[in-house]
Structures are given as C-alpha cells and as structure tokens.
Amino acid sequence: MEVVVLTGAGISAESGIKTFRDADGLWEGHDVMEVATPEGWKKNTEKVLEFYNQRRRQLLQVEPNAAHYALSALEEKFNVNIITQNVDDLHERAGSSKVLHLHGELLKVRSCFDEDLVLDWKKDLNIGDFCEHNSQLRPHVVWFGEAVPMFSPASEITEKADILLIIGTSMQVYPAAALMDFVKEDTKIYFIDPDPAIASSSRVKIIKEKASVGVPKLVEDLLK
Ligand code: APR
Q1: Residues 114 and 8 reside in one and the same domain
Q2: Cα(162)–Cα(187) distance, integer angstroms
Q3: How far apart are CA 16 and CA 182, in angstroms?
Q4: Which is the closest atom of ligand 1 to the Cα of 102?
Q5: Which domain, by its residues, includes 95?
Q6: Which of 140, 153, 196, 212 could form a disulfide with 110 if both were Cys (CB 3.0 to 4.6 A apart)?
Q7: At residue 25, does pLDDT exceed 80?
Q8: What does the DSSP 8-state code read for residue 79?
Q9: CB burial string 177-216: b at 16+ within 10 A, e below
C-alpha cells in the first residue's frame, strides 16, 4: 500500500518553528515579500541572508515531535513517501526515509550561477561565500514567484497514493495545494489540522487536532 503524506508548517509548529500565516501576514516578524522573493534578494541580500541564518540557527536547536516520529513508524507497514512544503529537516531526523522537499531545504545552499550546484550548509551564509564559479551562494529555498521544480516528481508520487495524509497546511500556496487533485478516485484522504482549510466529504476525513495528537492516533489505527 502506498501512503503519501503532504505536510506543511503546522507539523513543525509544536517543535517550535512558527507557521507562516499565523496572525498578520508576517513570518517570524518579517515581511515575506522582503525575505522570500527574488526581488527582496536583489534589493537587500544581507537582510535575506540574515533572515535565513536565523532560521537555520533555530532549526539546529529544535527537535522532531511526536507527529514526525509517528510518520516514520508508518514505514513498518506501508511504502511511505513524504512530500513536505517545509524547509526544515525534522522528517529526516525522525527517521523517515523518503522525503521530497517541494520548497527547498534550509540546510542546503546553492550557486546563483548554476542552480544544480547544491551544497550542504549548517553554518551562517554570508555575502562573499562563493561557489566554485566565484558566484554568491544563496539559500536553497523556493521563493515566491520562483518555479517549483520538485512539483512534477511530487505529482507523480501523489498519483500512486492509496492513502493520502495532509497535515498542518493552509492549502493556500500553489502548486503545492493542487497536489490533492492528482490522487486516484478511490484514494482515501485524511486531513489533520486544528483549523482545517477544507471541509469533510465522502473522500476527505477531517481530523481537527494538533499534529502531535492527531497523527500518532491515525498512524496507530492505520498500523492495526
Ligand atoms: N498541528 C497541525 N497543524 C497546525 C498546528 C499544529 N500544532 N498549528 C497550526 N497548524 C496549521 C494551521 O491551522 C494552518 O492551517 O498549520 C497550517 C499552517 O499554514 P501556513 O502557515 O500557511 O503554512 P503552509 O501551509 O505550510 O504554507 C505553505 O507558504 O510561506 C510559504 O513556502 C512557504 O511552504 C510554505 C507555504
């Protein structure tokens, strides 16, 4: 049985990483258009680097929570593919083996000259940190207005799902939100979120709970 899991910021909220659309359109106190767009990068590279440096430092101090661990336990019985919108590595640290990052990874950087030149990066990234082509390195994240190259492999994975779990996402960002439309007609969909963006239907079972509560419970049921 193929289980596909689409996760968003909500799954990492209880690890201490804030979601994006919390209150006032700010992301950790920053205007998203300034820190997460190609225009913002051009206008104030230092500010964008510092923003991601703060996020990277924070990530190195937090831990996966019960929801991340439960998903990794699901591999005991199912072929599990996780498609995450998150740039954190909490699924990997919890032991999930197949994790596709739709929006990039905070612990990677890439060359502005050659986008396929991607490096692991756990420290701060600064102006003057160059790739081997003497071009500035940038965070390996997808900014607003940029293409989402992992969407195509993600949609192919989603097409094979017998069960789709959607966890902690506002379903406001495309194309990620459109992945749901790729499932087969008889795929069972579970949506776990304390403030769910979609309504229940014959196809979608809504579980209105925090990830750390709802995901372990559902995983226990599925493993029975
Ligand atoms: N458990 C589960 N879900 C939660 C929890 C929790 N403890 N706390 C909050 N949520 C839910 C919220 O109800 C909301 O539906 O998580 C969702 C977070 O939504 P967003 O902040 O919009 O995050 P996400 O959907 O992942 O955003 C998508 O937008 O900013 C971009 O690229 C960024 O990947 C991100 C994308």
Answers
A1: no
A2: 5
A3: 31
A4: 34
A5: 1-17+63-103+147-224
A6: 140
A7: no
A8: E
A9: bebbebbeeebebbbbbeebeeeeeeebebbeebbbebbb
Please tell me if the CB atom of residue 101 comes closer than 6 angstroms to any atom of ligand 1.
no
CATH number, domain containing residue 5: 3.40.50.1220
Predicted TM-score of the model (pTM): 0.96
What's the length of the chain? 224
Question: Residue 206 — pLDDT band, cuts 50, 70, 90?
Answer: very high
- To test the pocket of ligand 1, the residue of 6, 12, 20 to mutate (highest count of ligand atoms within 8 Å of its CB) is 20
Amino acid 173: pLDDT: 87
- From 128, 115, 121, select the one nearest 57 (Cα to Cα): 121
Strands 26-27 and 30-31: antiparallel
Supply the pLDDT for residue 148: 97
The confidence score (pLDDT) of residue 21 equals 74
Q: Model confidence over 62-101: pLDDT tens digits?
A: 999 999 999 999 999 999 999 999 999 999 999 999 999 9
| Cβ-contact 131, 137 below 8 angstroms | yes
- Which helix (H) or strand (E) segment holds residue 191: the answer is strand 188-192
> In a mutational test of the pocket of ligand 1, which residue from 193, 209, 213, 217 has the highest number of ligand atoms less than 8 Å from its CB?
193
Q: Is the pLDDT of residue 123 over 60?
A: yes
The CA distance from 58 to 87, in Å, is 12
How far is it, in rounded angstroms, from Cα 134 to Cα 195?
A: 46
Q: Are residues 219 and 153 in the same domain?
A: yes
148 φ/ψ angles, rounded to the nearest 5 degrees = -115, 85
